[in-house]
DNA sequence: CAGATTTAGTCAAGTAGGTTGACTAGATAG
DNA sequence: CTATCTAGTCAACCTACTTGACTAAATCTG
């Protein structure tokens, strides 16, 4: 019962802590990406890049990933095309659809984001006792809803 | 060096994991709050409630906490007043300012949010090995920027 | 203590990023 | 082959924010 109380106490401020940590991470990545010269992007675009990197995606798939309408996703795609991060290609197997693919600049930007993320997290991870990082990953993995990254609030 | 590689690997997907966990938590709280009858609020309002609970706050203080302009904070305050969660009182020591305070309904709502948060996190916390929860808290505490909760992306 | 400056809050207008609804061109099912 | 469904876009609108202008109260200064 004492154990139960302690769990309850630890639970108390965990929401604030978790949100604050997420916020700190996003701020860190955003700062690092800007410092690397990509000043015309905001964190929201990063969530799109996650889906587009690799084989690319259609507007509909991007919309689903971001949990917004196809119209909004199409608008964001326009913006990323205009800024040179994304290219619209004909879809190989469906003439209605078009494949959104990262340009070289887009790929460079994702590399910058990865570097910024590591830069943000490494000192923090290294300050943790041995093995804690893996444990933390495992714990977060349990709580996380796979695929749902983008906050909607 | 093998150690370094392992840290690097664990770091790799931590951003996604952390954001996904934060998202799952907010979704859980939102669902729980709605289930308890508060259907006219969105997660964004919760960040305001955090600051208003206790002694209350002025519009300016709320704006600072949410990192938005005073005008936007004032607008949100209007909305919360109209919906019966908040009351505008004369400020005890400054006739220009007005104190925003939670009504009984507002307090009930924060209790509902606390219950929803615990409901969301408890089964997850209980599945963790003994002591992991405290370690997680400590780790998040290091990463977190105090006070900055609300995501801006 | 009188006048100048700062601060708390609001009003009004503009903007960014989403929404719903209507539509076209191409894919797919009967 | 026709009918229906699906990918995407255009247009109008909505909402939560922004910037700018202002009033009233507090505070600073000589």
UniProtKB/TrEMBL annotation, chains A, B:
A Pfam family per the record: MarR_2
Q: Which Gene3D superfamilies match?
A: Winged helix-like DNA-binding domain superfamily/Winged helix DNA-binding domain
**Which molecular-function annotations from GO does this UniProt entry contain?**
DNA-binding transcription factor activity
Give every HTH marR-type domain span.
11-145
| A biological process term (GO) from this entry | response to stress
Tell me what this protein is called.
Answer: MarR family transcriptional regulator
- Organism (species): Actinoplanes aureus
